[in-house]
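Figure 3 (text version): structure tokens given as input.
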């Protein structure tokens, strides 16, 4: 069964602080894979280790997390970018792999909670 339950959010809300960089991670389950974004501030709050370790440890400790799913979209100027798509819930017991995701595209910050 798909472990990623999409929690659609109607309005994207206000943009997060521009100085806060968003890191992308690929989340792989038995059925599919998605890209999620986590701000550097959130990653630092999870621990002092490497970003991937901080996120993985937080997910295991919490059992589940809600994060922003990211996807390629076009900006008003027509340029491609990675942008928040919707909130998703991740369940640690259904994940196969979590890995950093590199992209040549600019990454937009997620809306503030």
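Below: residues designed for each position.
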């Amino acid at each position: 069964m798909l472990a990623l339950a999409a929690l659609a959010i109607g309005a994207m809300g206000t943009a997060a602080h521009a100085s806060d960089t968003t890191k992308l991670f690929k989340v792989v389950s038995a059925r599919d894979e998605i890209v999620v974004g986590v701000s550097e501030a959130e990653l630092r709050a999870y621990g002092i280790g490497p970003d991937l370790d901080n996120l993985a440890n937080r997910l295991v400790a919490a059992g589940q997390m809600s994060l922003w799913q990211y996807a390629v979209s076009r900006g008003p100027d027509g340029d491609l970018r990675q942008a928040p798509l919707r909130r998703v819930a991740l369940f640690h017991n259904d994940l196969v792999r979590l890995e950093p995701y590199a992209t040549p595209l600019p990454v937009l910050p997620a809306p503030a909670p």
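The chain has two helices and six strands.
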